[in-house]
């Protein structure tokens, strides 16, 4: 799925940043979702294919574990690149999206749920079609 | 000079023959069976209906995104 979405995201970036001259350097925010997340999804899928015979863990639950790695690493990278500012009461993403700390726990739960569904239905479907699961 | 080029030509010919022996022509090989029908069968297979738990999770995620739209770009950052 990330591979399919990559051209669309790239086209969106070119339109917004180069076409509409959007002032915020969104290319910094694209490093993580375009360069690292697809590779991590692929490695995570390979890990599932290699281990589910022994662990009997469903692909949805396996995928739901990925945000435990992605969230901290993505936040650290975003802080280093200047797209995440940590404040006293919350964090500010992309210099415009304020996120209070009280919302981080429910947002994380939603991320786990979203990843569970994506891996169960999208990655599982692609694996079945390709005949690798 | 001419003798040297003949030797080089002979060397090239023998290398070419060795390569031809080592590598089978790609175009003449075919798969033992057509893979597309099996692929299409897997694509058209009807998946089982999602359980109520998955619907509840999807609704929860949708409600959170609607209640806090600022979270949507952050979610996209992690996809």
Properties at a glance:
heterodimer; A: 133 residues; three-stranded antiparallel β-sheet; 5 helices; 8% strand; globular; B: 79 residues; mainly alpha; 0% strand; elongated
- Principal-axis shape of chain B: elongated
Encode the helix/strand succession of chain B as letters: HHHH
Give the rounded overall mean pLDDT of chain A: 85
Please compute the radius of gyration of chain A using only Cα atoms.
17 Å
Radius of gyration of chain B: 31 Å
> What's the tally of helices of chain B?
4
Which stretches of chain B are poorly predicted, pLDDT < 50 over at least 5 residues? Answer: none
- Beta-strand proportion of chain A: 5-15%
* Count of DSSP strands of chain B: 0
Query: How helical, in percent, are the residues of chain A?
Result: over 70%
Identify low-pLDDT runs of chain A: none
User: How would you classify the quaternary structure?
Assistant: heterodimer
Would you spell out the secondary-structure blueprint of this structure?
The complex is a heterodimer of chains A (133) and B (79).
Chain A: H1 2-19, H2 26-55, H3 59-64, H4 66-81, E1 84-86, E2 90-93, E3 97-100, H5 104-130
Antiparallel strand pairs in A: 1-2, 2-3
Chain B: H1 2-22, H2 36-44, H3 52-67, H4 71-77
Structure summary:
The complex is a heterodimer of chains A (133) and B (79). Chain A has 133 residues and is mainly α.
In words, what does this structure look like?
The complex is a heterodimer of chains A (133) and B (79). With 133 residues, chain A is mainly alpha-helical. Chain A is built from five helices and three strands; from the N terminus they run H-H-H-H-E-E-E-H. Chain A has helices at residues 2-19, 26-55, 59-64, 66-81, 104-130; strands at 84-86, 90-93, 97-100. Chain A has a three-stranded antiparallel sheet. In chain A, strand 2 and strand 3 form a beta hairpin. The longest helix of chain A is centred in the first third of the chain and has 30 residues, at 26-55. Chain A is globular and about 50 Å long. Helix content of chain B is 67%, strand content 0%. Chain B has helices at residues 2-22, 36-44, 52-67, 71-77. Chain B has a domain at 51-79. With 79 residues, chain B is mainly alpha-helical. At the A-B interface, helix 2, helix 4, strand 3 and helix 5 of A face helix 2, helix 3 and helix 4 of B.
């Amino acid at each position: 799925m990330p591979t399919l979405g990559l051209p669309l995201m790239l086209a969106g970036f070119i339109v917004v940043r180069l076409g509409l001259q959007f002032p915020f350097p969104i290319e910094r925010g694209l490093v993580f979702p375009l360069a690292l997340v697809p590779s991590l999804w692929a490695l995570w899928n390979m890990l599932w294919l290699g281990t589910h015979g022994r662990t009997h863990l469903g692909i949805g639950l396996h995928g739901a574990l990925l945000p435990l790695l992605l969230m901290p690493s993505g936040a650290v990278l975003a802080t280093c690149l200047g797209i995440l500012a940590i404040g006293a009461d919350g964090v500010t993403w992309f210099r415009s999206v304020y996120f209070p700390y009280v919302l981080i726990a429910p947002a994380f739960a939603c991320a786990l749920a979203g990843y569970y569904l994506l891996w169960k239905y999208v990655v599982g479907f692609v694996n079945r079609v390709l005949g690798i699961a | 000079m001419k003798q040297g080029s003949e030797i080089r030509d002979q060397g090239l010919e023998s290398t070419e023959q060795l390569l031809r022996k080592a590598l089978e022509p790609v175009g003449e090989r075919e798969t033992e069976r057509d893979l597309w029908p099996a692929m299409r069968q897997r694509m058209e297979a009807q998946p089982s209906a999602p359980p109520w738990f998955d619907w509840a999770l999807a609704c929860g995620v949708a409600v959170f995104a609607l209640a806090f739209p600022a979270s949507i770009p952050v979610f996209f950052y992690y996809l």
